[in-house]
Amino acid sequence: MSEKRKIIVIGGDGFCGWPTALHLSKLGHDITIVDNLSRRRIDKKMGADSLTPIAPVKQRLTAWTEATGLSLGFARIDVAREFGRLTSLLASVKPDTIIHFGEQRAAPYSMKGINEKRYTVDNNISATHNLLAAVTGLGIDPHIVHLGTMGVYGYDDDGIEIPEGYLRVYIPGEDRRIVQRDILYPTNPGSVYHMTKSMDQLLFQFYAKNDLLRVTDLHQGIVWGTQTAETRLDERLINRFDYDGDYGTVLNRFLMQAVVGHPLTVHGTGGQTRAFIHIQDTVKCIALAVENPPAPNGKVAIMNQMTETHTVRDLAALVKKHSQAQVAFVDNPRNEAAENDLRVCNRSLIDLGLKPITLAEGLIEETQDIAQKYAHRCIPDMIPCVSTWTDSQRPGVVKSAA
Ligand code: NAD
Ligand code: USQ
Predict the structure, then answer these.
(1) Which residues line ligand 2 (CB under 6 A)?
(2) Strand 343-344 to strand 161-162: parallel, antiparallel, or no bridges (unpaired)?
(3) Most buried among 120, 259, 377, 387, using CB within 10 Å?
(4) pLDDT tens, 341-365?
């Protein structure tokens, strides 16, 4: 490790935040987790639960100390609503780095109904803006690392490699001059959730320019897998595994479906190509970002945090190959392109030293050690994706004739 840092991990009780907090603690950094435990509450309200038995926060923290001799700080703060408490915490910790995972992150949940749309926008935009306002108000200079998403780019399939955040454009000016600009890649979000991540980008751009905040925005693909080197140390440290129709992401859902004997739920033709990354690589990428803060030069550093791309139907075929699973092509509850190609530049993190885990390597372990072991905890009623993007997609709604 180059330098011991004081790091605040907002959203540090979640799927990406918890293993990141442990990894950075193991690397020798001083970690304070901030979380309002809203995800645990949403699970309860929906009647869902992680496939893996995640321990209460207190038990998680104790288990970490028992396993490693290291300790983690924890503050239960709603970053979107408790601005005063957030500011006081930042003033007392004086962090070198703040990692911001603290948002409502499921696209289907954000499209479930009016209340969920409003909650997602209010929570995500206020959380991000409160953090930026608190940092500038205090006059402190932490490096802010935000978890953004590949989904801000959209899936237009125009045959170009998606660059890392910025698009170089050449604009015809007066006197036949050509003006060169690097602009934020035009956003094309596919859900209210992805829209909030697009809006986050503008908040970061403004504060980086106006207040010279140092911000790294990691545009992450779909995370799969469950365990990391640190969460394996004790069962009480186990990471969350979402499989329900709102929070479960596609590959982890297929792995769980294969072991419980549910047909793999491919939406539409399964021709949607998406970017993926294993959770172990997520925590490594974040450590690399933490160790390489950008200069305060008015520009947000944007890196694409993904390691491979696959179509949904290819993922289903791969999971089927390792199991007895059937594949079901079901009506797509989303409003998205049925087929798209996707090429993504991920040079920055590879150049910083990331050596990706491939799907082929991690798949079997994930299936056997996690999905099979905890299959008995699956609540079958939670498997179907019932949140639709428009009212006319609801089951039973008669579509008007063209
Ligand atoms: P998660 O829901 O498991 O974790 C998010 C955590 O943030 C939860 O513990 C929740 O309680 C907390 N939180 C939410 N709002 C908060 C608030 N107002 N104040 C304090 N805490 C709050 O989600 P995750 O999968 O760990 O995702 C973390 C981040 O990474 C998200 O911002 C998400 O957009 C991004 N991301 C996730 C994935 C993925 O596949 N999981 C992919 C790309 C990007
Ligand atoms: N899909 C299926 N069957 C399923 C579930 C999903 O075919 O049972 C399809 C969806 O229709 C979609 C694709 O799989 O085309 C991906 O869906 P997903 O739920 O795995 O991922 P997504 O909604 O895009 O969101 C997830 C995380 C989010 C993160 C995003 C990264 O929940 O936090 O930002 O991945 S990205 O997709 O790169 O934008």
Answers:
(1) 105-107, 149-151, 221-222, 249-250, 253, 265-267, 272, 274-275, 312, 332, 334, 336, 385
(2) parallel
(3) 120
(4) 999 999 999 999 999 998 887 777 7
